[in-house]
Amino acid sequence: MNITGFNQTDGCLPYACPERSVSTAVYVLLYICAAAVVLLTVFGNLLIIISVCHFKQLHTPTNMLILSLAVSDFLVGAFVTPIVLIWTIESCWIFKRVYCMFFLSGAYFLTSMSIYNIALIAADRYFALSNPFFYTEAVSVNTMCVVVLCEWLILLSYILALLYLNFPYVNFIKCPGDCFLLLDEIWSLVDLVVTFVFPFTVIIVLYVLIFIIAKKHATAIRELNAQTRTQTSGNTSESVSERKAARAVSILIFVFMACLFPYFIYTLLGSVVKMEFESFRNVLILLYLNSAINPIIYALFYPWFRKCVKLILTFQIFKTDSALINIL
């Protein structure tokens, strides 16, 4: 990963993983916990992917963004999180050198994808609230799929270019016991702006605007209900549903930012303050734990997801016309 504060000017220690300082029981427990996190991440996000892809009612533009986020989280759980957890437990990079490059590529790419997926979800919600009629006409499922595909291709191109131009600084060439990328000051600044400052600024600004718009809508609904008491039940149920959906998305984004913020702060301070690499691995764990937390948020705040999980686990999705089941 991008660790600008770890300048190996003093040379590398001989390649040797340190001996374990914990008992065998604790060592086994750590691996059991790591396996549980990986399984939760993989199967939780797989349930989201199956739900959105299978049920026709969930084929909406917003859910295409949720699908994209679930796919990136699934790939994190399958290919990145296991390596990070093993790396942390062993306190040493125990894999082959060639896998270091694949790990760096996947970790950079999937982390950036998650950030920009969240930014697109914020943009989608703002656009839907600020221009609901135009949004309904202009944004379709196919349009959103094209946007998501372009997002994946653009970020993949950026990450490959970043790694290609900084390939001489991949640390395993010098220190076989570690696997991280050292960027110079210019590339560190560019990467910080592209993968953190810009998308997080977009997220914060859009959600401030969403909060203002939602407050205006709530005030207008209260005034309308005060003037006309008829048809209030329908308006009330609709507004409650919208508030629940907005709260779920807000919690999703808040948790996401809480998990990613320490990593980027650590990266930013790494160029100023010399830090221990072991503590950086702990920050990485928090970063990738977000992929396991997202399905829990869906399960807690999205009734449709709980219904989908029940239908999937009871194999009812294999029935004829199961894709047309009413889950909303």
UniProtKB/TrEMBL annotation:
- Pfam families tied to this protein: 7tm_1 (PF00001)
Annotated membrane topology is: Multi-pass membrane protein
What does the UniProt entry say about where the protein is found?
A: Cell membrane
The primary site where this protein sits is membrane
Which Gene Ontology cellular component terms are annotated?
Answer: plasma membrane
Q: Which domain of life is it from?
A: Eukaryota
Is Ribonucleoprotein there in the keyword field?
no
Limits of the G-protein coupled receptors family 1 profile domain: 44-298
Q: Where are the transmembrane segments?
A: 28-53, 65-89, 101-123, 144-166, 186-214, 245-265, 285-305
UniProt keyword annotations, A-Z: Cell membrane, G-protein coupled receptor, Membrane, Receptor, Transducer, Transmembrane, Transmembrane helix
Respond yes or no to whether keyword Zinc-finger is given for this record.
no
For this chain, one GO molecular function annotation is: trace-amine receptor activity
| Family membership | Belongs to the G-protein coupled receptor 1 family.
Report what the protein is called.
Trace amine-associated receptor 13c-like
Organism of provenance: Astyanax mexicanus (Blind cave fish)
